[in-house]
Amino acid sequence: MSSNRIIVGAVVAAACLGVAFACGPNFPWQLLDNRDQAVADPVGLGFNFEASRLVAAPRDRLQLVEPRDPTWGNYDDKSTPEVVTSERTEAQSDAWQGLMTDASLDAKARLAKLAAARSAGDGEAVLAAGKGLPAAVLDYIAGAVEFRAANFDDALRWFQAIDRLPADQRRLREVAATYMQGRIYQRLGEPAKARAAFQATRRIAGAGAPDPQGLAVTSLGEEALVDLVEAGVSKPEWAIPPLTTDAAARQAMIANAVRLYAEQASRGSKMALLSLREVVRLLLKDAATLRRAAADPLIRRLLVAYVVARDGSTVWEEGPYGPDDEMVVSISEAVVAQPAPAPGPDLDRLAALAYQTGRYELAEKLTLQASGPLGLWIRAKLALRRDDRAAAIKDWLAALGALEQPGTQQAIDSESQTRLRGETAVMKLSQGEYRESLGLLFPVATTFWGDVIYVAERVLTVDELKAFVDALPPAQPVTPPSDDSEWWYRVQPTRELRELLARRLLRVGRIPESVPYFEASSSLKRGRSDGATQDEVRSYLAAVEATRPGSPFDWPWQWVDRAEALFKLSVMTRQRGLQLMGTEGPPDEVALGGSFPSGIGQSSPNGYRDTPSKLLGPDEVRRFAASAPMPDTRYHYRGVAADQALAAADYLPQRSQAYAATLCWAARHAFASADLAKAEATYRRYVATGAYQPWARNFGRECAEPDFAAARTFWQRRLEAWASHYAGSVQRHAVLVASAAVAAAVLLAVLFRLRRSRRASAG
Questions:
Q1: What is the rounded distance in angstroms from the CA atom of residue 78 to the CA atom of residue 81?
Q2: How far apart are CA 261 and CA 218, in angstroms?
Q3: pLDDT at 527 over 50
Q4: How far apart are CA 673 and CA 667, in angstroms?
Q5: Cα dist. 311→8, 68, 417, 568 in Å?
Q6: Higher model confidence: residue 246 or residue 380?
Q7: Which of 195, 185, 194 shows the shortest CA–CA distance to 152?
Q8: 500 and 622 assigned to the same domain
Q9: Mean pLDDT calculated for residue range 627-656
């Protein structure tokens, strides 16, 4: 088992992570779903961030080279595809110039001999197959072949042969040969020689010898494994001699192993991060070993980082851990039993552990003199826990302000900084500082888009939101998604907030103001429901204007024109209502393309809580109610379309086909919005006042197109039919026509009065 291979490969799948992470198809993290719990939760720090900063990164020439998959298994002599590629690159270049025993070999011949040497069965066969190549290259391949066959004595002989070559020849494989000698001494159970070889590897590489495989950095982990094995903490797959070291020596070895892994991690090694995590797991197997190891400050910092690790930050996560978790209890007892560190980052992290494990009195003591972001953040949570909201908000703001001080930007990882900002926004919201809350959330909108939606759409007034949007910098160009992996959720905060405002303005009837906030063209594809364009909104505005009366004395045929305009408006509303006036969050969920009834944003100020939150703003509930769409139902624009179709029917002759058809479409839109009561009432109106239509057998489900042209001549045709039926002679016909004309004039006057009063009540 190799240094960074003490991880054997378990990968824990984590779903719906975080306190307020809505389960669903990649729904985002939302703090306001349960704001009281969100701000009370323990602080989670990124384990990778913490572990990679246990020691400062050295400034030297050593380079990191790791496979992309940090759990990738045994690679023996590092004969990975990367190694073979490196050898082939050398063979095709001038790197071997003056080192080959056969200078006549061209690149093609060198590659062929290299492949033959790699395929040989033993060391001697390697030399025969690769004759003419540099001696160091062949000796190294020979050693690698024997190493893979577990012929360690023979392998060691070949690798040591490189040490005896002239300096200019051995330089080519000096680092690799020394490293492999350390690997062999590991297998042979000679820890002192293994350590010496790994330390020599780093020394030689640091002096400038080629190290294309990054073996010098890898040797840190290999040496750490030697310590862990000799200390009896790790059990490798090869045989080892009986342990002879005492407890103090074993403790020193464990501490040194952690230091080596920490140095490797500080250079960016993911494998070292996995190994550090595994070291903690190994220590947990023995309470006495854990307690002794915790006396070392570096190990204590590692243990704290392990407990307060935010879930999901690495491929090896099993949190979040609660205060009653057996592992948490073991580590916290071992850590707290040690003297507290001096005020500073270590003390703040110890306070985070105390808070997470429910040791609130200890956390209070540890944060008394806090001045850094983490300590102030913990102190804010403690203040809120004892219902001192003023002190809590003061410390939340102080913690956020501390991040902006020089040298503190890296005090906590970026995800923790985002969470701190989000929690501060929640507290601002509770104080009624709504615009300030949105101002804190907006820079992290891609994380807390659901919370941004809630504040912008349901808490701020339209004018407050408009002032906020107008103060934003111009939206940046969108990078289209490379695939469909983010088909529904690809937030471009400024652009999306502008469109949220645009749709909200249109919903409240301020259509002309909304136009500039929509996209200018439809060429922009955002990976979610395509928004309406400015031209489309102008067309909608024109349709609205067409529904207005032209003058106070419209003639009956002009009523039909108005009815037709209203019906066309209802069609536009039904077909493009989501893009024109849909809510970003509930009930329409434009953010989800309308595909889900919930998931982003909140349908209640209390989120999913059954009881009111203690952190509601002073008038937040009133503002939420005032900003509701009308009707406040799923796909609310379908209800708007139904009302527009009903209004169209009011201006049509009741016995006309157009009257029945517009009622049918109104019922259909009502059905689509799940308003069964409105659909039923519309059907009863048709039965009571409309004429039989053969297509109306499935009323509200299948509808004919309204015949507005026929509606315009409806009364004229009725009078002509009446006159034709009752006229017996030309003279009598003339008299009847004259009588009909008088009657029609009287009827029109009556109808005009009735229609004017109905229009006044309908708006």
A1: 9
A2: 10
A3: no
A4: 10
A5: 20, 22, 16, 53
A6: 380
A7: 185
A8: yes
A9: 95
